[in-house]
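To illustrate this point, what follows is a protein record of this kind.

___
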Amino acid sequence: MEFILFCIVVWGVVNFFKSWNDQGTNSSSGNRYGSGSGRSSADMGQFEIRAKTEMRGKDNDIRVVAVECRGLLPVYRDMKIDFVTWAEDITENPDGDPIICNLEDFRHHDNPTFQCVRDGGSLSPNQGFVNWVEVGVAPLDALIFPKSGSRKMKIYCYMTEKTSPNLRKAIVGDTCSIQIVNNETGYKEWTVKRIEALVLAMRLGVAIAYADGKIDDSEASTIKKWLKERVGRLADDKQEDAKTKLNEELKKAFGLARSGDLDYTSACIELKGNSTKNAAYDAIELCTMVMAADGEIKKNELDLLKRIAILLDVPSSELQSLRDKHTANAKVQTTSSGEHNDEMLIDLDTSLPAPQIKRKLLEAFGRYNDLLAIERDPVKRKRYQECIDAIARLRKKYG
């Protein structure tokens, strides 16, 4: 369902910008150009551009950089024209780093860098713009910058006679700069940010492993296996350095855990500030796997897992789904009297008022009954049946 919604959103954004460009194309022709309302072409001024950020779209939720121009458009004969806009990131590199675009309609014809081509209609000599007129737009949320944070864009815009892309030549052009904020991980820092996220997730996994005061070999093995699989997703030339870094950080985390100095709260805060996609979810998944690695889910481990999930803003429904996925082979720690810990098995908060407990039990029954109906894995089917049996006992216990 999330994938379908994502596709719908992307389709909407693409069509919004496509129709927007088409509207700009249609309005470019006709009487847009003039000799300056009585002013001579000399008074019109030289061609110049400026850029500004705006919010657009039906719900005013699409960030763009609008590029406008004014001044004389110097041609010696009638022709059809285009305005071509592109940009570079000059925050750290004065020579400019490329800016990538996710939308095909806003890409260079030969590569994925940002470019906007706006139809300018027909133009005659001694015509131009007296006032500022939009000739290009950059969809900010579809752009990929070298790095995240405050970025300086250098924008280029030129007018060309309408022709095939490979034959375009600038008749007149200008540049300007604008400061914007990029909230996404940049292509130059993706590996660095990803490794930072892996280190923080690993620390949380170690915290879960040491929740009972010691670490089991199976728990350490689970963490190492998870890290190895994640490193394998990095570019080949980045993997060796990543392995070295993560091995050092893992040894450090084990040492801090043994001394009682491993701070999971600060790790959660740092991880929330990391812009790597799904970083929090991946960390909670690792923690869930570590909790079940030794074959027993202990109360102090589960309590810590829930605290970490809250700190990372991971919904309880997602945490429950991860438990169902990764803990089917693990037994739940029994009570002090040796009885089944049914409350812990289905994660029932017994401090809730009686009506809410009944509602939670009803919801849990529906959940596991549905899962049992579609699950084929015998281990998971056994766990879901155990949950249904536990719910039956709890309904008797709590009325």
Q: What stands out?
A: Residues 1-20, 22-31, 35-40 have pLDDT under 50 and may be disordered. The first helix runs from residue 2 to 28. The first strand starts at residue 48 and ends at 56.
